[in-house]
Amino acid sequence: MNTLSRRHLLRATSGAAVGIFSLPALAAAVQSATSPYRRPKLKITDVRTAQVRAHGLQVHVRVYTDQGLFGHGEATDSAVGAPPLIDGFRRFLIGQDPLNIDLLTERIRTMGIFAGAQGGQYVTAITGVEIALWDLAGKALGLPVYQLLGGKMRDRIRLYCDAQTEDPDDPNAREKAEQVKSMGFTAVKIDVDDLRDPNRWDPVNTTASNAEIDRMVRKVAFARELFPSRVDLAVDMHGRYDMTTGKRMAKEVEPFKLLYLEEPVPAENVDAMRDIRESTSTPICCGENLFLRHGFRTVLEKRAADIIMPDIQKCGGLLESRKIADMAHTYYVPVAPHCVVSPIGTMASCHVCAAIPNFLVLEWHWIPRLPLWRSFVKEGEIIDKGFITLPDRPGIGVEMDEEAARKAQVPNTPWFEPTRS
Ligand code: MG
């Protein structure tokens, strides 16, 4: 609170007037301190991108304004192809008020309905811009993003580590598990699918042989042995198998009491996912490749998943993720977002996770690239004992260290340089 507003408040609440009769004066003082006339007047002047390859491709987006402020967002996975799409959005965005975030993203989306705005790369490109607009709005208004999303329900966000410790034949698996444990994580995830499994009968057919099922179950048992039972264990099949295999695996891993089994079949056929869910006591999670509320609507309506996992840097942005989570909450379904991005996108995800009631756990996937993770933002390491504490700084609350981040720049791509169009 600035000096002026504090003086107004003191005047309004001082002396005998304090009590219920002082409320109108107090309200007037608050109004004068936060008058809409004090709202920053901003216009978008440019939108620029930079590309980083860490866990796959990440597209970083900056939205610039006439007041010198800029917002920074990050998009991933289906961000391939995002830079030229964002360049197209740029022509519409220049001159607009960046604080009308939902209006701008809805306009871009509805303008693109014949260009693929129902999902995929188009929506992920919007996502990068949307997140940059939230960072910008927070900076302009002097508030952390979680405050703009409704306030925080929790101060810190629980992470799970994509541990990559599942292979019993990996001589370094135990050492890797010790590292994960020493970092204090209370949840881990392993991958069990393996397209190179020599026990596969066929490189295309997606029915796992008995030997493949045995190998997958052995990985789960090994991970359960590496981590204490109080550490939650999630298992990912990456949607690579058919219904028969999905049902068999869900049944086979029931004794391990998993946090969840992720995408035993692809998420596109909601009825197939529901049939697996109904066949087992193992919780089923899906949704890292679904977009917008529309992508999650039938999953929820048909009770196809126990847990959903929108990728906040991909599925439509921070507010869209909040809307997806709110929709899930009406079905009592928790949210465990997919997240493979840098500390900037991860912290952006944390603001959503802080603001929703049904947050379960957030992914962290950078253990093979710790030096880059720890140097990527000026704030340094943001994880403490498996949790991220929300910063009170305006916007997302972390700033890219460009010298460190450029070490992972995709060669021959622009680095927040102006386009000629
Ligand atoms: Mg996955």
Please tag this protein with its features.
14% strand; 3-stranded antiparallel sheet; binds magnesium ion; Enolase-like, domain 1; TIM Barrel; globular; alpha/beta; 9-stranded mixed sheet; disordered N terminus; 421 residues; 3 domains; 38% helix
Question: What's the layout of helices and strands?
Answer:
Layout (H helix, E strand, L loop, with lengths): L2 H11 L9 H11 L10 E11 L1 E10 L4 E7 L5 H12 L7 H11 L8 H22 L3 H4 L7 E7 L10 H10 L4 E5 L18 H17 L5 E5 L6 H10 L7 E3 L7 H9 L5 E3 L5 H10 L5 E2 L9 H12 L13 H13 L6 E3 L5 H6 L7 E2 L2 E3 L12 H4 L16
Parallel strand pairs: 4-5, 4-10, 5-6, 6-7, 7-8, 8-9
Antiparallel strand pairs: 1-2, 2-3, 4-12, 11-12
Helix pairs in contact: 1-2, 3-5, 4-5, 9-10, 11-12, 12-13
Outline the structure in words.
With 421 residues, the chain is α/β, with parallel strands linked by helices. The protein has three domains: 3-33, no CATH class; 44-142, Enolase-like, N-terminal domain (Enolase-like, domain 1), CATH 3.30.390; 148-399, TIM Barrel, CATH 3.20.20. The chain contains 15 helices and twelve strands. It has helices at residues 3-13, 23-33, 82-93, 101-111, 120-141, 145-148, 173-182, 210-226, 243-252, 270-278, 292-301, 318-329, 343-355, 370-375, 402-405; strands at residues 44-54, 56-65, 70-76, 156-162, 187-191, 232-236, 260-262, 284-286, 307-308, 362-364, 383-384, 387-389. The strands form two sheets. Strands 4, 5, 6, 7, 8, 9, 10, 11 and 12 form a nine-stranded mixed β-sheet that branches. A three-stranded antiparallel β-sheet has the order 1-2-3. Strand 6, helix 9 and strand 7 form a beta-alpha-beta unit. The relative contact order is 0.14. It binds magnesium ion.
